[in-house]
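WARN retry 2 of 3 for item q-0093 after timeout on previous attempt; input resubmitted unchanged.
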Amino acid sequence: MNARSFHATMAALMLAVFTVSVGFGVVLPLLPYLIERLLGVEVDVARVSRHTGLLTAVYTLSLFLFAPMWGRLSDRHGARGVLLLGLLGFGVTMLVFAFVESLAAIYAERFLSGLFAAAVTPVAAAAIGNFTTTEQERARRLAYVSMAGIAGFLLGPMLGVFITRFATNFLTLSMPAGSVAIPLAATALLAFLVASVVAVAVPSGDGHDRLKGTTGAAVENTAWLVPKLLILTFIVSAGVGVFEVGLALRGKQELGLSPYQIALMFTECSLVMFVMQAIVFFWFKPDATRWFIAPALAVLAAGLFLVPRASDFTLMLVVIGAIAASAGILSPILTYWISAKAGSAQGWELGKQTAAASLGVTVGSAAGGILFNAAFLPGASFVITAGLTALGFLLSLGLPYLLVHRNSSARLLTA
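OK item q-0093 returned
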C-alpha cells in the first residue's frame, strides 16, 4: 500500500470511529430528559436514574456480545465489508431512534445500535494493526483512531444540546420524538456518508504489511499476559461507565446544573482525554508507555473516590480533569499493548478488548444508575468502583517488567 492510499484509509477509519462516538455522545446527556418526557413529569428521580443507567448499559452490553464476532469476521474477510455493515446499520438505528415514542422501543434501539457500533471501533483498530510495519507507526496510528473517537464524544453532547436549542426556538417539529429527532437524524446521515467513504478508501483485503515477527512469538509468550491487560481494560471502563452516568445524574439531581453545564462537563472530559492521548504516543516511545499504567490507575481511583465529595460545579471540573487525564492515558496504552501481542489475529484480540471495555462500561453504567440514590453508602457506585480500580493498580505493579521482557524475547526469537 502506497503512502497516499494509506492516508486515505486512515482518514476513512478515523471518520468511522468518529461517527459512532458522535452517536453515543449525542444520546447520553439527553437520556434523563428523554426518559422524563416519556414517563411523565411526576416520575421519581430514582426511576429516571435507573433507566438512564440501564439504557447506557444495554448499548455497551451489545458491544460486549458482538465485538469479538465482528473482529473474527474482519480477520477472515477483511475490514471493509464489516465496517460498511456496521456504519449502515448504525445509521439506520439512529434514524429509527428519532421516531420512537416508547421506553421499550428505546431499549431495543440501544441494543441494535450497540450491535452495529461493535463492528466499527475494534475493526478499525485491527485494520491499522494489519497494515502497520513498525511499532512507532502502530502506536501513533492507534492513537489517531482513539483520538477520533474522543473527538466524536467531545462534539456529540454539545451538538445535541445546541441543535436541540435551535430546533426548540426556531423550528416547529411534527416528528414524534420532538427536538431530539434532529441531532439523531443528523448522526444517521453522517453514518451513511462515512460508509460511502469507507467503501472507496478502505482496501477489501486483510492487509499483508503487518509488523513482522509478532505472530508466533507474541502469541506464544503472552498466553496469560493479554488476559491481564483485558482485566485492566475492564476495570478502567467500569470506572468510566460509573463516571459518565453519575456525571449526568449528579449534575441534574444534586447540583442542579443546566443541560448546558452538564454538556460542558462532558466536553471538558473529552477534551482532556483527547489531549492526553495525543501526548502519550507523540512525546514518548511506545515501550516507555508501560510505566504510565500503574500511576494512571492510582489517579483514576482517587478521582472516582472524590466525585461525590465535589460540592459545586468548579470542584466537579477539577475532579473531571483528573479522571479524564488518567482514563485518556490508559485507554490507548492498553490498546497498543494488546495489538502488539495480537500478531495476525488483530480483529479477534482487539474485538475481545472492546468486549472487555464494553462489559466494564455495562457494569459501571448499570451500577451508576442503580446505586446512585443508594441510602447505605453516599456515592456508593463511585466508592465501590474506586476500590476496584485500586485493585487494578495492585495488579499492574509488575506489568512494566513483564511487557518489556516479553518484547525482548520476541525480538530475540525473530532476530
